[in-house]
Amino acid sequence: MEGCGEDGQVKLLGVAYSPFVVRVRIALALKGIHYELIEENIQNKSELLLQSNPVHKKIPVLIHNGKSVCESMIIVQYIEEKWEKKAPNVVPKDPYDQSIARFWVTFIDDKFIPSILGVFKGEGEEKQKAVEESVANLVLLEEALSGKAYFGGDEIGLVDIALGGLLATVQTIEMVTDSVIIDTQKLPLLSTWVHKFCKAEGVKEVLPDPAKLFELVSEMKAKLTSPPTGN
């Protein structure tokens, strides 16, 4: 995408298959903001990335008119505040609704992501425990979704982006580890939401290629389980 225009110069440092980069790309796409995606090599990070995020040295980084913003959900909130006149509003205007949305975003990052990583890294009983924990976390999110099309109401909002950016990776981890996390019987509302979210305009265009993601996650899993070599 072209990164300069009425929105200023917008660059996004990242990799297309990263769930955290996907979060930012969804927000940019929903707002209709033109940007340049600069693909990073995570094994050989660019000077631009190291200079733009000197503390954590991680992707994603949004560079808007030369100024860097780091951390996926901080970037999403920056996008909303900077281009708040562009629909849709992904952050609620009401302070109470805003606090609830931020609570669930923190829950996803602090509780759900570690449990999913546990499924990916674990084996046997350890993996099964992580699956149960992941499902229990999603049950709580299912309750939060009750009575709404999206977590944001009628339109995609902050919580939808936080969880939705992870979906492709979660579904791939399910396949690679032969696990069921998004259980249609236990999570009927969330299962419906998953289908709707992935088909939404502004979302489907930026989701990573499933075959490529499967290949990458499978390679990562193989490295975890392969015995060490050498003395």
Folded structure, characterized:
This protein folds into 2 domains: 10-82, Glutaredoxin (3-Layer(aba) Sandwich), CATH 3.40.30.10; 95-219, Glutathione S-transferase Yfyf (Class Pi), Chain A, domain 2 (Up-down Bundle), CATH 1.20.1050.10. Strands 2-1-3-4 form a 4-stranded mixed β-sheet, with helices on one face. The protein contains 9 helices and 4 strands, in the order βαβαββααααααα. 54% of the residues lie in helices and 7% in strands. The chain starts with 9 loop residues before the first strand and ends in a 6-residue tail after the last helix. The protein has 231 residues and is an alpha+beta fold. The mean pLDDT is 94. It holds the Pfam family GST_N. Residues 94-224 form the GST C-terminal domain. Residues 8-87 form the GST N-terminal domain. Belongs to the GST superfamily. Tau family.
Roughly how much helix do the residues carry, as a percent range? 40-55%
CATH fold annotation of the largest domain: Glutathione S-transferase Yfyf (Class Pi), Chain A, domain 2
Cα(first) to Cα(last) distance is 48 Å
SSE order, as H and E?
EHEHEEHHHHHHH
The description of the largest β-sheet is: 4 strands, mixed
Strand fraction equals 5-15%
State the name of the first-level CATH class of the largest domain: Mainly Alpha
**How do the strands of the widest beta sheet line up side by side?**
2-1-3-4
What is the count of distinct domains? 2
How many beta strands in the DSSP annotation? 4
Q: What would you say the CATH architecture of the largest domain is?
A: Up-down Bundle
Poorly predicted ranges (pLDDT <50, ≥5 residues)? none
Radius of gyration: 18 Å
Mean pLDDT: 94
Basic shape: globular
User: From the helix content, strand content and strand pairing, which structural class follows?
Assistant: alpha+beta
- Helical segment tally? 9
